[in-house]
Specification:
32% helix; globular; 6-stranded antiparallel sheet; 17 helices
Length: 510
């Protein structure tokens, strides 16, 4: 799960890409990168850290050009913390491509072997994104006639890619001298949308993971890119699109609505804030069935993602709503932090419990989800230490029991507190007096209420149903085993600054 953005502008776009990445920072806090195109030259800088810490004035000045892409990185299963795996990526053949990817491929190892043995392409990292880039480059080379490239060939290449690749992928790529290409996997698991801004110099276009990046940058949201669809924007701002998949079916990741996306984004026709309100409404009905409402003095959210659900739950049940946890906004999101010890320490740094709201009261805590249980356990302990008599816990999402292989770092069932445990046992593990999970059918219905055209969801972490059809126990075991092996990092203290000429890498300056 990462955040990606691409802009075809009429003036230098480096600042605009930077500002858009700030708006997508919640999607990844491990690394950030920008690649711009200036004529036939690519310029790139990427480094570990938050956007505001990665880019300095000297880096921004070294990113000229009227088109550019960027990414904020959240490392997924199997990836290392090497800066070499930060994005954007680059290949110099056949046309020179910079590339940003959100998602995770499930057949990347087989593709990597095929690229080496059949396509004669070398992969330099253990990143599935580099594999995907090289598949695209190979298919572009195959589809192009001679040295020229047109939209017919580009869409033919994306169609061929869809036939080879399995998994989740939302992609933005710059093709040197031609323009920007964006496409989404045939299930539309990861979000991608298109925005437009009319200027005196002509139209400008943005492609981004979430609509908030457009609205916060002055662009108008146009539409979501459809599952399997490819959109090409040439350097003059002309937009061409085509459906490139044989049987596309919109199957968005349901966890985007629960946790990942910003509440002010709209994804596949569903406003995330309204979806979370709906989740609270459905959750309220189940709470009323399982906990005696007279035993609850206060409903309280765990900031920030669960706030809409908690507010709606309290309103629906006519219970008092209070904010008892004060958030330190200078600490990152704990769920996407690598390492359980780091997440546990971060909870205490991130939240402070106000004893005036807890002392002598029975509290119903509402969170967006319970994944590993580390955060939930710490929060329950904090509530009791602040003086709560009883602590009930409600999750706006169902029990997370299965690994996710499509871009969320839930790679092994051993990491998941609900695996092999009943809700009562999970309640004891986190120290709560009672625990209520949202029903999966209710979660799905909450989103369908807002867009009935969505008929199915990628909800594998809840139901174990892997929609790409290539995941079995052997695959999950290999994934689990790979997590236990130490990863040798090539991390570098500074960032990587490139000036990439068309068709050749001109070197790197540190």
């Amino acid at each position: 799960m990462c955040g990606i953005v691409g802009i075809v502008g009429r003036s230098p776009v480096n600042q605009l890409v930077y500002d858009s990445l700030l708006l997508l920072q919640h999607r990844g806090q491990d690394a950030a990168g920008i690649a711009t195109a200036n004529g036939n030259n690519f310029n790139m800088f990427k480094a570990h850290g938050l956007v505001r810490d990665v880019f300095r004035t000297r880096n921004m000045r070294a990113l000229p050009g009227n088109t550019g892409i960027g990414q904020v990185r959240y490392p997924t299963a199997g990836s290392s913390d090497s800066l070499e795996e930060a994005q954007p990526f680059y290949v110099n053949a056949p046309f020179g491509i910079t590339f940003a990817h959100n998602g995770n491929l499930t057949n990347w190892l087989e593709l990597r072997e095929s690229l080496f043995k059949v396509d004669r392409r070398h992969i330099n990292t253990n990143s599935d994104s580099e594999v995907l880039l090289n598949v695209l480059a190979h298919e572009l080379q195959t589809a192009a006639e001679g040295v020229s490239l047109d939209t017919v060939a580009i869409f033919r290449a994306v169609s061929a890619l869809h036939k080879r690749v399995k998994g989740a992928y939302a992609v933005i790529a710059q093709i040197a001298g031609y323009g920007m290409l964006a496409f989404r996997d045939p299930f539309g698991i990861r979000p991608l949308c298109l925005g437009h801004l009319e200027t005196e110099a002509g139209p400008e276009w943005m492609v981004a993971s979430e609509s908030v990046a457009m609205e916060g940058s002055g662009f108008n949201f146009v539409r979501d890119i459809e599952p399997g669809e490819a959109v090409f924007i040439d350097l003059d701002g002309k937009v061409t699109s085509q459906q490139c998949a044989d049987n596309p079916v919109l199957t968005p990741c349901i966890f985007e609505y629960v946790y990942f996306a910003r509440p002010d984004s709209t994804i596949d026709g569903v406003n995330v804030y309204n979806a979370r309100l709906k989740m609270g409404e459905y959750l309220a009905n189940k709470v009323a069935r399982q906990i005696r409402l007279s035993d609850i003095d206060i409903v309280m959210p765990i900031p920030d993602s669960s706030r809409p659900a908690a507010m709606e739950l309290a309103s629906h049940l006519k219970l008092e709503y209070r904010e008892g946890f004060i958030k330190n906004r200078y600490v990152g999101r704990t769920f996407i932090m690598p390492g359980q010890a780091v997440r546990k320490k971060s909870v205490r740094q991130k939240l402070n419990a106000m004893s005036v709201e807890f002392k002598g009261k029975n509290i119903l805590l509402v969170d967006d989800s319970i994944v590993r249980g580390t955060t939930s356990r710490e929060i329950v302990d904090m509530a009791r230490a602040a003086g709560a008599k009883k602590v009930y816990f409600a999750s706006a999402a169902p029990a997370v029991r299965y690994p996710n292989v499509y871009g969320i770092d839930m790679p092994t069932q051993d990491d998941l507190i609900a695996t092999g445990r009943t809700p009562e046992e999970v309640a004891r593990e986190i120290g709560a007096d009672a625990l209520v999970y949202q029903d999966l059918d209710d979660l799905k219905q909450a989103i369908k209420d807002l867009n009935p055209n969505i008929t199915q969801f990628e909800a594998s972490c809840f139901d174990g149903n892997y929609i790409t059809g290539d995941i079995d126990e052997a695959y999950l075991k290999r994934l689990s085993d790979s997590r236990k092996k130490p990863v040798v990092s090539a991390e570098q203290a500074g960032g990587l600054q490139f000036n990439l000429g068309y068709g050749a890498n001109n070197g790197s300056n540190y």
